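User: I'm putting together a small comparison set for a docking exercise, and I want a reference complex before I start. The sequence is below, and the ligand is zinc ion. Could you produce the 3D structure with the ligand included, as structure tokens?
Assistant: Of course. I'll restate your input first, then give the structure tokens for the complex.
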Amino acid sequence: MTAALGKDLVGLEHLSPDQIRLILDTAEPFKEVSERPIKKVPALRGKTIVNLFFEASTRTRISFEFAEKRLSADTVNVAASGSAVQKGETLVDTAKNLEAMRIDMVVIRHPSSGAALFLGNRIRSNVVNAGDGTHEHPTQALLDLLTIRDRHGKIAGLKVCLVGDIQHSRVARSNIWGLLKLGAEVGVCGPDTLMPRGIEELGVCRFRRIEEAIEWADVLNVLRLQLERMEKGFIPSLREYYRVFGVTLERLDRAPRELTIMHPGPMNRGVEIDSRVADGAHSVILAQVTNGGDRRVTRPLLLTGGRVIDPSRDFDQTTDVLVQDGKVAAIGAGLGSPDGADVRDVRGRVVAPGLVDVHVHLREPGNEDVETIASGTRAAAAGGFTAVCAMPNTDPVTDNQAAVGFIVRQSVRAGLARVYPIGAISVGQKGEQLSEFGEMVGAGAVAVSDDGKPVVSSHMMRTALEYARSFGIPVADHCEEPNLSAGGVMHEGLVATRLGLKGIPAAAEEIMVGRDLLLAGLTGGHIHLCHMSTRGSVELIRRAKEQGIRVTAEVTPHHLTLTDHACEGYDTHAKMNPPLREAADVAALRAALKQGVIDCIASDHAPHAYDAKEAAFDDAPFGIVGLETAFAVAYTELVAAGVLTLAELIARMSTAPAAVLRLPGGSLKPGAAADVVVLDLTTRWTVDPTTFFSKSRNTPFAGRTLTGRAALTLVGGSIVHEAVAATP
Ligand SMILES: [Zn+2]
Ligand SMILES: [Zn+2]
């Protein structure tokens, strides 16, 4: 048999299908040995076998020992602990010693990939690999193949899916080779963080959802999740893992055919019970997300004679819009008004899909004195926004399912703009341990971000991008290299020099933009770059988009319209992070927005208490409110000034941001939820922060005269804002 197989059994990758079949066929009759009263056959009589275990694994070692004894071999066990191996003896030394002892066969288990091949190349004895690093574990895979063949009578044509930590699993690699060579179709399923790069190129199907794998497969081989993986941050917790990837009874109940379930090691129990408890709570919250806000019974509403602009369909016509049952029912001239309809003459005004803001801070929970979900969404409605995404730097941090659910419930209660929570990347935004993305997405989160804090660790960002892929959500990135920005309070440039304030260089942003674009390229994850402020960042994004990297980006109204000169006089309302930059940066940001290099406008609405901003420049917090001025600032400075067309501005504030975070909204197509804004583009008004619906007043635009405002805002067909008659 050795002649047909070669000297060593290092892995299944380099065996032929016939060789694998030969091993399985040879093994078959030996199973019967275990049933005999005297469990012994003389197959290996007179042979000496050393079990050389550099990794503690009692289970595997005992399996080999039993097999060797039943085959009548003489067995010697050498464990790494307490032996010469641990005292600095190298694998080469060991090999030489074994050679000298005329050993017939060495069974080796070693933490380094390639150790079995290395040993086999240096000694004349046969070498059997019992697991080397994350390379192969051919004997376990052969057992798995035998089990599958017994159960199904064949392997060719079967669909076998390996579930779990493929990246670190030698059992998975051996299984993939063995199954493919014997004609099975092979699937792999698990989070991206535990999936080796390019796995599809081995000829396997990649599943991101366990439900899809269960639907597809005849056999599921569930790999044991090693607890040490969590310490390296590949998954947030075992509980989350089982919630998302667990092979539960409920999931198996929905399988289209009877499945064979295999698992090579002992399962992690107890966690599954936890996940069922969580399941109950989760489904309640989900139902709320699905039903919230759209169940209100409202009168039909007919908007007549407005200029209807819907960038999602390149639609721009003066016509009527009928809103009924919370939806856009019809668009066209001469629509009859249903009984009891509220008819509004909107001639001279623009009817557009409601604005969407992918970046706001609502401060609840934790800082309800400066903003609440109710006051923030009231401000949003006044600004023409029908949906906002809430950043997670609340107190406590929005880093778990319950916190996400709280925000959803509060926003449903307020009944104004829709709120889509963004969950934290890391627990407590500490940058140490990944949050439970799956649980948060289940509760309604649409993205993850540690906004307010940069993700310092490149490994954490890589892992976040990979793990977020499993849920189809982007990672929203606050780009700041903290060692470079430390102590800075405004843009590093001439104005800072004159004012004697410590600057934040453009490079502090660009370094992180560059790093995270590379990581998005590496992982295939979707990076969404928040509040871009420099011309260097624009160039990096442009190049990344040309290369096909999955990147989207946002820019704030203030970075499009103000420069570091706004900090003159130490005006703390011009203190924000990233800081206001130079005229050349503003020009580059405007051009990028026009071209679509930057996808959308976001306000980064950041309320602060009056007395917090009423401080020395160095001591004041970063950030300004923006929901109630965003559209007017952008319209006045960009559209009226000829930088963007009106349709382009609406696209950048509604259709594009909805697309970036895959949110509903951003469209007036019939059947869509009636999230609509009616814009009055003739009224000139002066920004008076005391009239804000937001609880905070920190804006650099106070006293500015702007053009354009939301006259009417509808969410799900309900009027959530109606401007009082404009005062000239
Ligand atoms: Zn930020
Ligand atoms: Zn922010």
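DSSP finds 25 helices and 27 strands in the chain. The mean pLDDT is 88.
User: Thanks, that's exactly what I needed.
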